[in-house]
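Hey, I'm writing a tutorial for new members on how sequence and structure tokens pair up, and I'd like a real worked example in the thread rather than a made-up one. If someone can provide the structure for the chain below, I'll link this post from the tutorial.
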Amino acid sequence: MAMNPELQLHHGSMAEYIGRARSQDDAMRRAHRCIETVQASTRLAAGPALISS
């Protein structure tokens, strides 16, 4: 399955961000931030109905 080009750009950016970690703990923190960012973006994209949840 082909990935949406916009998602590919974000995926690459997040992978680079995590790759710049200086330790395993830093990588875990960075990965968690990426997950939180995707979750927040998904809620915003879904519209007002999910923002309050």
